């Protein structure tokens, strides 16, 4: 809000150049998008916590959601010099799912794996059938997370100390992911080793 107020003040002054005005317009656009994303994130969490989030559950395939999410994130990965690799088992059985909600989970996991990674690193997406569950994992080759920090990864507003310099965020994304996955009857886990990367794994049950 302070940035928007400053931009509005500067744009109202006489004598600023067209180049300066263009920069102010771009800043207003970026800050507006950022605030919109923040508001949407807070509303998502509020709905999930209150039990008012609407889930449109249907029997469907997970693979199209994965492919679409990866397509969306590929350009961002390229910007960060990150390679996305996939290993998706073919002919996975259908599960009960909310396409939009699971896509939100996938986009968040991919976004984190890209943001908290090294230039030239990799993100690996693995999906397979294991007993009565479909197991989906997203791994990165980033700096990893300490054992102490791992305990708090799904807590609201928690951010791993030191990551503020790598990327901005609210610390709500993983908390939202956890609630969405649990609403599907599944669970989400995280494993990491400092200096070797991090893996988030989602377990989604097959229909009974």
Short description:
By secondary structure, this protein is of the alpha+beta class. It is 44% helix and 22% strand. The longest helix is centred in the N-terminal third of the chain and has 33 residues, at 18-50.
SSE layout and pairing:
Layout: H1 2-11, H2 18-50, E1 58-60, H3 63-79, E2 83-88, E3 95-97, H4 99-115, E4 122-130, E5 133-140, H5 147-150, H6 173-183, E6 187-193, E7 197-205
Parallel strand pairs: 2-4
Antiparallel strand pairs: 1-3, 4-5, 5-7, 6-7
Helix pairs in contact: 1-2, 2-6, 3-4, 4-6
Structural notes for this entry:
By secondary structure, the protein is an alpha+beta fold. Helix content is 44%, strand content 22%. The chain is built from six helices and seven strands; from the N terminus they run ααβαββαββααββ. Strands 2-4-5-7-6 form a five-stranded mixed sheet, with helices on one face. It has a two-stranded antiparallel sheet with strand order 1-3. Strand 4 and strand 5 (133-140) form a beta hairpin. Helix 1 runs antiparallel to helix 2. The chain is globular, with a radius of gyration of 19 Å. The termini are far apart. The model has no long low-confidence stretch (mean pLDDT 85).
Strand order within the widest beta sheet:
2-4-5-7-6
Give the distance, in angstroms, between the N- and C-terminal Cα atoms: 49 Å
Provide the low-confidence segments as ranges: none
Strand content is: 15-25%
Mean pLDDT across the residues is: 85
The count of strands amounts to 7
Counting H and I runs of at least 4 residues, what is the number of helices? 6
Helix content: 40-55%
Radius of gyration: 19 Å
Largest sheet entry:
5 strands, mixed
Given helix and strand content, the structural type is alpha+beta
SSE succession: HHEHEEHEEHHEE
Given the C-alpha coordinates, what overall shape results?
Answer: globular
